[in-house]
Fold this sequence. Notes:
- This protein is α/β, with parallel strands linked by helices.
- It has helices at residues 18-27, 40-52, 74-82, 103-123, 135-145, 160-168, 187-193, 223-234, 238-253; strands spanning 2-7, 30-36, 56-60, 87-96, 127-132, 151-154, 172-175, 199-201.
- An 8-stranded parallel sheet has the order 1-2-3-4-5-6-7-8.
- The radius of gyration is 17 Å and the shape is globular.
- Nickel (II) ion binds next to loops.
Amino acid sequence: xxxxxxxxxxxxxxxxxxxxxxxxxxxxxxxxxxxxxxxxxxxxxxxxxxxxxxxxxxxxxxxxxxxxxxxxxxxxxxxxxxxxxxxxxxxxxxxxxxxxxxxxxxxxxxxxxxxxxxxxxxxxxxxxxxxxxxxxxxxxxxxxxxxxxxxxxxxxxxxxxxxxxxxxxxxxxxxxxxxxxxxxxxxxxxxxxxxxxxxxxxxxxxxxxxxxxxxxxxxxxxxxxxxxxxxxxxxxxxxxxxxxxxxxxxxxxxx
Length: 255
Ligand code: NI
């Protein structure tokens, strides 16, 4: 059994065949799927999907590339959505310095990230963090502003040293399609060194399809390809990987 701990099935790429995509996931052994919002609108959409499909859960939050969507009422609205039983996390939230080069806008990203960490603490929910090219500031914020919180650095792209700091906080790393890419850089070494109880698997569908689907639309069924690569690198069986990554997902998100 597998759990896809991060995807975006509310995306318009799935509007024609969403139910079939969920069915294919089930047939591949993917029994639970967590969709994450990036804006208020997509957070509402993933919450609705979780109500309508028994396999689906949701996380709600404002993504760092969508900070213009954040105002004085946003946290109250996110809290309303989070009151729905199948909303299990605040996310995805975090920092994205890849496209954002303006230091004042990066500072706004940090403030909105911290505000949503505070919201998660108030609501007693775990968090799913997006960190793109912002490893040092993300780690600093986790170490200083995330006390008492649990969470995952999703689509992990930092160094082994940073991963070790993340593990010290009892946080998780999320591993997806890039692990299977030829240019996966340091990721294979990181997953080999990671303790079993700190790894989650995810697709980030519709993005980042793993090999052999690379370049096509990604979907939750393909999380099994990520699990296979993990098993190969860590010298474990696919069943073992499915068992411990699912246990980790249940542990973090209380599914
Ligand atoms: Ni995502």
